[in-house]
Amino acid sequence: MQADISVTLPAKSEFIHVIRSVVATIAARLDFSVDDINDLRLVVDEACGQLLGLRGGATVLTLKLIPGPGFLELMVSTDGSYSWPPHGQNALAWEILSALSDESGFEHVDGGPTIKLAKRVRPVA
User: Fold this and answer.
1) In terms of DSSP H, where are the helices of the chain?
2) What is the pLDDT of residues 59-71, one digit of tens each?
3) Dihedral (Cα; 19, 20, 21, 27), 10-degree rounding
4) Helices 16-29 and 34-52: crossing angle, nearest 10°?
5) Which residues contact 58 (CB under 8 A, 6 or more apart)?
6) Which of 1, 18, 71, 75 has the fewest CB atoms found within 10 Å of its own CB?
7) Residue of 51, 64, 63 whose CA lies nearest to 12
């Protein structure tokens, strides 16, 4: 599986479970461990929460997954107008994102705020 996957949903918290399920399914197909899949579900939940907490008139929430050999890159974004990156972002949420992913950061993609994350497959001991 090397094709990028995109999911676009209304920017409402009740749709985050769909994004978590998509991430878990793709991660399982890439042979992530159960613990790493759970980490990815939590990471995407926190990223979505950060973006939905912004006030800028977002109407859509988009997840883009870029699978590669031994890793999964995630980009979660919304539309709307924002000061980006946000000032005073939730420090606890960013600690979680940083601790549970191998890479994390802010970007502006297609005019909207984006949280970019990556996780590598860890060998099973």
Assistant:
1) 16-29, 34-52, 91-100
2) 999 999 999 888 9
3) 110
4) 150
5) 11, 51, 52, 78, 79, 80, 112
6) 1
7) 51
pLDDT at 84 over 60: no
Q: What pTM was computed for the model?
A: 0.86
Contact between 47 and 97 under an 8 Å Cβ cutoff? The reply is yes
pLDDT confidence bin for 26, thresholds 50/70/90: very high
- The structure tokens 């050999």 sit at 69
Q: How far apart are CA 82 and CA 99, in angstroms?
A: 26
Nearest-10 crossing angle of helices 34-52, 91-100: 150
Helix (H, G, I), strand (E, B), or coil: what is residue 86?
coil
